[in-house]
TrEMBL record:
SUPFAM superfamilies: ATPase domain of HSP90 chaperone/DNA topoisomerase II/histidine kinase, Ribosomal protein S5 domain 2-like, S13-like H2TH domain
Gene (UniProt): top6B
UniProt key word Isomerase: yes
Family of the protein in this entry: Belongs to the TOP6B family.
Molecular function via GO: ATP binding; DNA binding; DNA topoisomerase type II (double strand cut, ATP-hydrolyzing) activity
Biological role: Relaxes both positive and negative superturns and exhibits a strong decatenase activity.
Reaction catalysis annotation: ATP-dependent breakage, passage and rejoining of double-stranded DNA
GO biological process: DNA replication; DNA topological change
Keywords of the record: ATP-binding, DNA-binding, Isomerase, Nucleotide-binding, Topoisomerase
Presence of keyword Acetylation: no
Ligand binding (ATP): 46, 78, 99-100, 109-116, 428
Name of the protein in its database record: Type 2 DNA topoisomerase 6 subunit B
UniProt cross-references to Pfam families, sorted A to Z: HATPase_c, Top6b_C, Topo-VIb_trans
Coiled-coil boundaries: none
Amino acid sequence: MDLAEELASKQRSISVAEFFEKNKHLLGFDSPTRGVITTIKEAVDNSLDACEEAEVLPDIYVAIKRVEKDVYRIIVEDNGPGIVPKQVPFVFGKLLYGSRFHQIKQSRGQQGIGISAAVLYAQLTTGVPAVVISRTGHNSPAHRFELMIKTEDNEPQILKEEEIEWDRMHGTRVEIEFKSTLAAKKRLVDYLRYTAVVNPHARVRADIDGEKFNFERASDETIVPPKAIAPHPHGIEFGTLKRMAEGSSLKLKEFLIDGFSRVGEKSADEIIGLSKLKADRKSDKLSSDDLKALLEAMQNVQIPPPPASVCLSPIGEDKIVQGLDKEFELDFVRSRTRKSQVFSGHPFIVEAAIGYGGKLDSEGSAQILRFANRVPLLYQQGACAITNAVSDVNWKSYGLSQQGLPNGPVMILVHVASTNVPFTSESKDAVAAIPEIEKEIVLVLQELGRELKTFLNRRDKSRQAEERARAVCSILPDIAEKVSEIVKKPVPDITPLEGQIMRKVVVKKRTGNGKVEIFVNNYTKNPVEFTIYNMSADSGDDAMPKPDFVDKIGDEYNKLWKVSMEPESYWEVSYKGSAQGSVSIRGVDENKLVVVDLF
Ligand SMILES: Nc1ncnc2c1ncn2[C@@H]1O[C@H](COP(=O)(O)OP(=O)(O)OP(=O)(O)O)[C@@H](O)[C@H]1O
């Protein structure tokens, strides 16, 4: 046998499932640790997409349970519209099967690989089938499936199907078991937190190996779901045009108006004129050369950009601020949503926010939160166009030090929303370096940088004024004592005076033995609202007396108390245990509130 014949005997087609089984890193399954995050991300993305389409407020439950030493069961459950039973095996048991690939609109999922890749990974590492429960409404029973993927032909294998009782009216629950570790727990919690920030309408509850997390929704408004649009003539490629033309029996002019976004009578006439084709030619009769001429003409006619307001769903400035404030309690936060732009015929919108202070780490470089179509990007920060654009901004001119990325207690959030986010790979970790996108990111960050600079300048000025006022206040008690000695009168209460000198509401805190005393002066006639966090880190909730004016707003990890005190009122807090927990008071409006006697 000669070599060609020998090789010929070895040629055979490769199923897509076999390919991805071998190349799982391409889909974000490069290690068991990462596998957990990718699986949860894919399932949660699907849940959010499904709820958005059904216009329901997402209520998502995520759990990771240890089954054996290194085997974990991952559960994601949603209250979405559910999946009709005959589709379930394909959604979870066939790669490249999905509802979004052919639609031009913003969505988290794009490729139809995500969740089936997780099923594939599970069967590869443990051989345990995926369990899916889904219900489409109160009139339909819930169906439970046990599924695997036949890798040799990329078809689903149903091991069991049954109708079951399920307390959810509608929704989907997927359970996948695989070999892994919880080494990336922090990253996972971050992923859930960031998901909550950019999906303020979602409620996400999680149980990670027994530890509970609850990310409440910051907004009760459902998102108006983006609608699919027709392709834009500037974003079309030859193959797609050919397929569209072959599948249409319309005449050329109608084909253009009907099949493409933003093409009306005038643009259609212009395109046809430039292409030198006849307007009444049947589109399925066009030759390859005709189509090439048509494509060329399409690119050279000015056509309005695609209707971004229909097919994109930016988060919005207020919602971003709400989300960030809820999770990070920043001293300064501003956000901007830019107008839509286009790259290669695909509409996109860039939104960004800058946060400063609060709970952010003051050491090291800024925290960069990258998002694409409302999905947090967790890996490959260095390879992402968002990171490059952040480094391209001259942060020094906005009052921050910089080594590539800016330094200090700064958080930079960037969200790229598009009908076609250009990722660097199928694992959807990083946005590719598209000049139009990078430019928009730089512009929005420069806008926000200017606002940050104004805040930092004002803060520095008010700090100086405050220091002077504090110096005056510190000698006031002595002066009051001396003067009263001289005039032989009782020592007056100088706190109103302090308030006037500081021109602020003064909340005083003193510590005694195991005690914290909070005092609000009378500079204002209104109650003073502020938050206290981390109260008594080691002495538990019981250590806090809870008068009427105190409300607990944090969870057990984030001890946060909302306090509203009348002017000239005291509040003495005693600890049961040792008073080692740090207490700090953060003003709701830091320009109106000053804290004295910090410890
Ligand atoms: N929880 C769910 N509720 C309703 N439909 C779902 C759910 N999960 C998946 N689907 C449907 O299954 C399809 C396939 O999901 P899959 O995760 O494989 O791909 P995708 O989300 O479309 O794209 P990507 O590969 O980019 O994640 C989705 O397009 C959606 O129609």
